[in-house]
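ARCHIVE RECORD
Type: protein–small molecule complex
Small molecule: heme C
Source of inputs: curated submission
Record status: active
Notes field left blank by submitter.
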Amino acid sequence: MPREFSSLRLLDIPVKVLFTGYLATVAVGYFMALIQILFTHGMADGEFGLSIDDIVYSYYGNRSGTVLETKLNGSMKDMASDHERFVIIQWIRDGAKKTEYKTSGVDEIVKSRCLACHNENASGIPSYEKFEGIASVTEQDDGATFSSLTRVSHIHLFGISFIFMFVGIIFSFSETSRVGYKCIAIGMPYLFLIVDILSWWLTKLHPSFAVLVILAGGGMALSFGFMLFISLLEMWAFKFAFIDSQGNRRPQWSFYIEHWFINMGFQSPEATLKIIWKMIKTFALFSKKKWLQLAWPVVKKLVIQAWGSIQKSKH
Ligand code: HEC
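STRUCTURE (tokenized, with ligand):
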């Protein structure tokens, strides 16, 4: 590689320690995030492990049911016995009436099983001490709310882009991949991040986009793992990984997978970018179609309604 830059292997040990500390901490953070996803989204359909259904329930909702019922069959399944859950679900299906809250026995169950966590003092989770609290989750389950989506979206965009900033900077000092491939590895996570966030919103509109959430999340994890692995290898195990027994440099890793890539149509970084661009274009067209089919009629109706009520209030 005829370029002048300090490669990872030549860095001072203190800098290597700094980089390694950062990468290791972020890796643990990533692992924790995965566990959290498994226990919240992963349990949305009541079965352990992440599936398309989980994503659909989390963002689009389970529109034939209520939040309370979805949760009782999902992440709150272990909080009450089967019988108790049955009693609550019966009550919901009978119309979740206030008059029947006590007589049906739901009141007692909530008091003994749920209030330990869902009380006024708990932060971040709704309180069910008052009937109104429970009532708010017995309406149709529309999945993630607009306000929760905007909040989580901006936290993710700001937070994760920072993580990839530093991981990308560290990886940019690597020398065992060609410049073109390095650019792709560094740029990819940002693309995946944006597609990921976008796909939450699209899934909120229509469940068919749930696949995209998983693909983008997986892509992000893959790029992260790749940069982390190569960076650590170059810093601490360069000889072992990149020098053969005769003391010669092994070919860059891109050399090995290039044949494989070429067979798939990725002849060069340029060709690869073209393919990615084509994918983005296809995706944009698909989104536009879905938008016109599904979202636009809804938005149009809302605007007309709002306009109508403004006109009315004038008279
Ligand atoms: C050990 C603590 C704990 C207990 C006990 C508990 N919950 Fe939860 N609950 C949580 C947490 C944490 C969340 C937020 C994470 C999630 O949605 O899975 C939550 C979320 C919920 C939600 C979703 C709220 C929303 O607006 O999205 C519902 C509904 C719910 N719980 C119902 C219940 C019911 C009914 C019981 C009693 C049978 C119960 N929970 C018992 C901790 C608890």
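CURATOR ANNOTATION: The CA atoms of residues 181 and 209 lie 29 Å apart.
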